[in-house]
Amino acid sequence: MSWIILFLAGLLEIGWAIGLKYSAGFTRLWPSVWTVCALAASFLLLGLALKNLPVGTAYAIWVGIGTVGTALLGIVLFDEPTGLLKVISLLLIVAGLVGLKLTSA
Fold it and tell me: What domain range is 32 assigned to?
């Protein structure tokens, strides 16, 4: 169950990171509210997952999910530049996350 909670925390990290862009520096009310709520929920879920998971592994996976998801959504939603090196780099992060999961109890 802790891994599911951690995964949800990572998804919420993507949500608040993207929300920062939509909030325009916290000048738009509803995107700002969503961002703060997603941030709080992400931290809450990360804290719950840390009850049963090693902190180094859980934190790395939480950040990795957020990093890969935010980078991909930046490409899709905001037409951020992409290229082969970026894709390979994101795949290496995913490979690292899988490796961390496989070496954790």
Answer: 2-102
The tally of domains found in the chain comes to 1
CA triple 77-65-88, angle to 5 deg:
75
CA dihedral 16, 68, 7, 48 (to 10 degrees): -60
Sequence-separated contacts (24+) of 19-25 with Cβ below 8 Å: 21/78
Q: Per-residue pLDDT tens for 29-79?
A: 999 999 999 999 999 999 999 999 999 999 999 999 999 999 999 999 999
pTM: 0.93
